[in-house]
Amino acid sequence: MLRKTGFLLFAILLAMLAACGGTEEEFGSEGDAEDFTNYSDAVNYTITGIEPGAGITVTTEKAIEEYDNLAGWELEQGSTGAMVTELGKAIDNEDPIIVTGWNPHWKFAKFDNLKYLDDPKGIYGGEEVIKTIVRKGLKQEKPNAYKLLDQFQWEVEDMESIMYESAENDVAIEDAAIQWVQNNPDKVEAWTEGVEDVDGVTVELVSTPWDSERASANVVAEVMRQKGFDVTITEVDVAVTFEAIATGEGDASLAPWMPITHQSFYEAYEDGFEDLGENLTGAKIGLVVPDYMDIDSIEDLKPKQ
């Protein structure tokens, strides 16, 4: 009797599952269910960012405002080093993480599994360039400095190689830049073509305090010193960078990212400096995730409930 009752209950259970469409085949395996990860919840509706006031920080704050599905999200601001540390920990454990990203940056040399999320609203823009700006009057007062600065141009991979060498081998970025100059005489020759040697002419380069700009500033400073210039590098916040060149307190900066990242600062001071054009092309900013995350667009993220 008990056996018959058991069979009857089992048959009823199967009938109920069939009626509800609840077979294992229809629902999928447990592993299939895990494929539908709510990444927004997994990262606690938080984007891991860098320093307050940085161009990528300002743009990400705008993205949170412009994308309806980012309503309720937070941008965790800290140091660039802390962001990369958190990224490394997440990758080691294959955990979800969303970070503010940009090229050139050495994390793309360290981690070969990163991807940008599509930005349908174009908040982060397309390809960025890094420009050289100089104070008005520099060409007349220091023509050889002006000529070298005007001829300076390099590639994303050049900048990233210096940053990676510094970060991975605990080498001061100044030393990594000097070594790069020694290893790339052809590029240095192109930058110094027609530039005469000088005797102690002073030049002040104004830079932002990030390794990408430290790399370019120290490379150019080393090349200028080889031509006899007395070069100093002053690191300041982004807004002060543009102000310093526009007011003549500094001679030049290799740090402006355009047309999006530093647009507001550029437009605020553009009447006070001369734009020598691009010193690097192919730069990019946006939100970055490891490629094991099955997500492709900012719009795939879910708003905070």
Any chance you could write out the topology, listing elements then pairs?
Elements: H1 2-20, H2 24-27, H3 30-34, H4 39-42, E1 46-48, H5 55-66, E2 74-76, H6 80-93, E3 99-103, H7 107-110, E4 114-116, E5 128-135, H8 138-141, H9 143-151, H10 156-168, H11 173-183, H12 185-191, E6 202-207, H13 211-226, E7 230-235, H14 238-246, E8 252-253, E9 257-258, H15 263-269, E10 273-290
- The CATH superfamily name of the largest domain is Dipeptide-binding Protein, Domain 3
Look at the helices and sheets and give the structural class: alpha+beta
Task: Specify the overall morphology.
Answer: globular
Give the N-to-C terminal Cα separation: 52 Å
Q: What's the CATH class of the largest domain, please?
A: Alpha Beta
How many structural domains?
3
Q: Taking Cα atoms only, what radius of gyration do you get, to the nearest Å?
A: 26 Å
Strand content is: 15-25%
Task: Give the H and E element order.
Answer: HHHHEHEHEHEEHHHHHEHEHEEHE
- Mean pLDDT, nearest integer? 88
Q: Give the name of the CATH architecture of the largest domain.
A: Roll
Low-pLDDT regions: 1-36
Number of strands: 10
CATH topology of the largest domain: Dipeptide-binding Protein, domain 3
Pfam families: OpuAC
Main location: membrane
GO molecular function: amine transmembrane transporter activity; carnitine transmembrane transporter activity
GO cellular component, one term: ATP-binding cassette (ABC) transporter complex
Can you give a write-up of this model?
Helix content is 45%, strand content 18%. It is of the alpha+beta class and 305 residues long. It has three domains: 2-33; 34-126 and 286-300, D-Maltodextrin-Binding Protein, domain 2, CATH 3.40.190; 128-282, Dipeptide-binding Protein, domain 3, CATH 3.10.105. Strands 3, 4, 5, 8, 9 and 10 form a six-stranded antiparallel beta sheet that branches. It has a two-stranded parallel sheet with strand order 1-2. A two-stranded parallel sheet has the order 6-7. Strand 6, helix 13 (211-226) and strand 7 form a beta-alpha-beta unit. The longest helix is centred in the N-terminal third of the chain and has 19 residues, at 2-20. It starts with a helix and ends in a 15-residue tail after the last strand. The model is unreliable at 1-36 (pLDDT under 50). Residues 1-21 form the signal peptide. GO terms for molecular function: amine transmembrane transporter activity; carnitine transmembrane transporter activity.
